[in-house]
Design goal:
alpha+beta, Ins_P5_2-kin
Length: 377
């Protein structure tokens, strides 16, 4: 495992940086640097004269200098205070060692270790999160609530570091970014031989039955088969594209996205790595094996595809990167195995599960579907 001492940290986020909450997942929160400068103090520009550095330079605590342009086109990702999250420096060391060598530089959401201003940055951001949580519990008129209710109550870890990551949000103009999770692009090695669903379709079918039987029923997850993404069959690629982009299915976007999927070497590379790094599956694989944990990481990554404003530029200017690649922890091993055992025991792989909903839905997985996707386009 990579240690913090082996990582050379150069960049820093000063205490005065005014960060703006963007989004969060289960383990991290992402912040935006305000345009032009990460500072809002009006005295910053006034303090500089012909004898001092320009405003694109600021001194750090160790009398070094840093060009503020390093924050251009970057987001700041900070980890939450959870027992399952590693320190940022250790997680970055694993990414550098095990993930980065697997892909070309332009295929990854780049991430770079950055030191945080001592103490006050995390403290201030946690205070802001608590205010958001209070607004969720007791809404304040005129306030925009941006923190999901299910995320409240968990705050940032008092970590010395954060990560600068590539900003894959839409740029100025009419560019569009499509974000999705490719998931398991090949069948689980420990799935039954008579399976009618792949691993991901089995999981979705199970979870959707749980959601449908709740009182009141909750919104179902999208039922798309990741195997269609790498099928190389145009009608199946178009079918899965329409599901991924629903409910806003602009035909132009569907067509562009489907064309990218059909020709993407990145998706096939991802599939091949998932298979090469895990040949046993969750029932037999050893969670202490870094290759298995990297394979499971690649099965839970996020794909960002940014399309240029002019569709005539698609061939040369589409930007596709993979993110959310913190290597999974050894502690996830029992959960992966228990989930696999449940899917097999309850018949979700084979389509023999006990139905608790009134209507039997057809199997949508590429392995066991009995309908022609052309009829659904």
């Amino acid at each position: 495992m990579a240690s913090e001492s082996k990582i050379d940290v150069v960049l820093f986020v000063p205490e005065e940086t005014q960060l703006v909450y963007l989004a969060e997942g289960a383990a991290n929160i992402v912040y935006i640097f305000p345009p032009r400068y990460p500072f809002t103090k009006p005295t910053l520009l006034e303090e500089y004269s012909s004898t001092t550095p320009p405003p694109s330079i600021i001194e750090d605590d160790d009398d070094g200098e840093q060009d503020l342009n390093v924050f251009d086109n970057k987001l700041l990702r900070l980890r939450k205070d959870l027992p399952t999250t590693l320190t940022v420096a250790i997680a970055q060391g694993q990414w550098e060692r095990w993930i980065k060598p697997l892909f070309k530089d332009d295929q990854l959401v780049h991430q770079q270790l950055v030191r945080l201003g001592p103490g006050k940055v995390i403290k201030r951001l946690n205070e802001e999160l608590r205010v958001k949580d209070a607004q969720i519990s007791a809404p304040i008129p005129g306030k925009i609530l941006v923190r999901p209710t299910k995320r409240q109550g968990v705050y940032l870890a008092d970590d010395e570091y954060g990560l600068l990551i590539t900003d894959m949000s839409p740029c100025q103009g009419n560019t569009e970014v499509i974000e999705f999770k490719p998931k398991w692009l090949s069948q689980s090695p420990s799935a039954p031989l008579n399976s009618k669903r792949c691993r991901q379709c089995a999981i979705i079918a199970c979870r959707n039955q749980e959601l449908a039987t709740k009182n009141p029923p909750e919104e179902l997850l999208k039922e798309y088969c990741p195997l269609d993404l790498v099928s190389g069959i145009e009608k199946d690629v178009l079918y899965v594209t329409r599901i991924l982009l629903a409910p806003e299915r602009k035909l132009a976007n569907v067509d562009r996205f489907a064309r990218w999927i059909f020709n993407s070497p990145l998706l096939t590379r991802l599939r091949d790595l998932q298979s090469e790094l895990d040949k046993l599956g969750p029932l037999k694989a050893d969670p202490k094996d870094w290759k298995y944990r990297v394979a499971m990481t690649l099965r839970d990554c996020t794909m960002f595809v940014r399309f240029p404003e002019d569709r005539e530029d698609d061939k040369e200017m589409i930007e596709a990167r993979i993110g959310d690649l913190d290597v999974k922890s050894v502690g996830k091993g029992p959960y992966w195995k228990e989930t696999e055992e449940m899917l097999i025991r309850e018949g979700w792989y084979t389509g023999t599960e006990r139905r608790t909903t009134a209507r039997q839905k057809p199997i949508t997985c590429r392995i066991g579907r009995t309908f022609d996707t052309r009829d659904c386009i």
